[in-house]
Amino acid sequence: MGLGGIGIAFRRCSPSFLSMRFGACHQPRFTSAVMFSHQMSTNAESVAARLNSAGFIRSQGFIGGKWTDAYDGKTIEVCNPATGGVITNVSCMGGRETNDAIASAHETFLSWSKLTAAERSKRLRKWYELIMDHKDELGQLMTLEQGKPLKEAIGEVSYGASFIEFYAEEAKRVYGDIIPAAMSDRRLFVLKQPVGVVGAITPWNFPLAMITRKVAPALACGCTVVVKPSELTPLTALAAAELSIQAGIPPGAVNVVMGNASDIGDALLASPQVRKITFTGSTAVGKKLMAGAAGTVKKVSLELGGNAPCIIFDDADLDVALKGTLATKFRNSGQTCVCANRVLVQEGIYDKFASAFSKAVEDMKVGDGFGEGVGQGPLINDAAVRKVESFVEDAISKGAKVLIGGKKHSLGMTFYEPTVIADVKSEMLLSREEVFGPVAPLLKFKTEEDAIRMANDTNAGLAAYIFTSSIQRSWRVSEALEYGLVGVNEGIISTEVAPFGGMKQSGLGREGSKYGMDEYLEIKYVCLGNMN
Ligand code: ADP
Q1: Angle in degrees, 0-180, between the axes of helices 117-133 and 150-170, rounded to the nearest 10
Q2: Could you confirm whether 479 is annotated as catalytic?
């Protein structure tokens, strides 16, 4: 990117005691005794060194177009989950830096929102092009900090960029209305205007796409943004912010602060200048943010946890069902909120499906995301592994049977074996909560009504999948499912042109598509009187 690199010293991530010494700015990522592959670490180190000298690794926050240290000089480690090596230390910011980012976003809002839609569109388009020009480097950066296989990471860069391309086009289509008046001397208009400064809080599982699908529509509408990426994966966000400046998006339109999550969150919530909070992450944090936004009555959109059912009916095409279930379950090692969390299989096809599915899962290659042919990377950290282990133990203790996997991978670190577990029941943790890991629990059902009842028996309502060759059934079941997204005979359905979002406790609002624009717009009614 034509910028000087920062000093990178390769070392292992801090053990847990550092969290006590340095507080929130040092979170332990890996606490267990781990095996450490020298070969994996060397490969990752050379990629990091190359990215660094090309200016892709940034260590400071981005406020008003300036790279900025935390005001108290604190930093936080960003670690490679595949090796446990420290990639770099980034600024660990809090409320004061966030308030400055908000002030800068507010000042820029006054000019950015006044540009013509065509002008904003051109700059967004340029940003899209720059991201696509650097998709290999951004993909490598993502694999380094997040762990997903390189091919998947580069795929996410294209997916993330697609939101910018789409909203560059939508920017020009923010139409209002003229309403036929009830009185002859009046003329009634509806204007759509940007809400103002947006606070965007994002998770680690999609370090780019969760940001662009918030920031792109916000900028397209004329809003400016303070982004808080996950402390686990801030590097892709920082590199994307740098490219936004190169694209001509003005300083202050996109700000990035990371560090102490609750301090940053509290500053965003408290500020009357922040008019909108958009969040992707856990249901627990989403509820906190929703409550906190009440103080200043901000608009809120939330993409929270799921508990996706994947329903395989007796009449499904087995190959299509296998391929679709593998894709939705094991994408990003099971760490997405739309990953199948429960695989419900009708009794007539259960045994056949279970054995073919287990065979396919057994063939998956696990390893460092930079490795040749690797389909499954590590989990994000030790806590993620412990959660998966506890869910699997709970299921086994209640009578479930491991068909494949079921334990940590021999690679060590946070690698977990792709796992299939049969005879799972609805009272087990694997059915009740999101496992967020590479574990596919199989549940048997008898009738279509049973499947719908089991699928809807949860507080979540994000994504659901059904596999059937009956067109009538596909409609009936799609309509009966209490979910925001339904995939029929398809496991990967997210796209920038369709609305993404949940029902029940999976969230509020929609991202992507024309509906994604509404989240960043106010509706204003203007009445012209005495017009005769
Ligand atoms: P996950 O368990 O997937 O990491 P979280 O909801 O904890 O999900 O995190 C999603 C995002 O929310 C991250 O950027 C995280 O730092 C941020 N976050 C966590 N707690 C808070 C909080 N109290 N206020 C604001 N943001 C928060």
Answers
A1: 170
A2: no
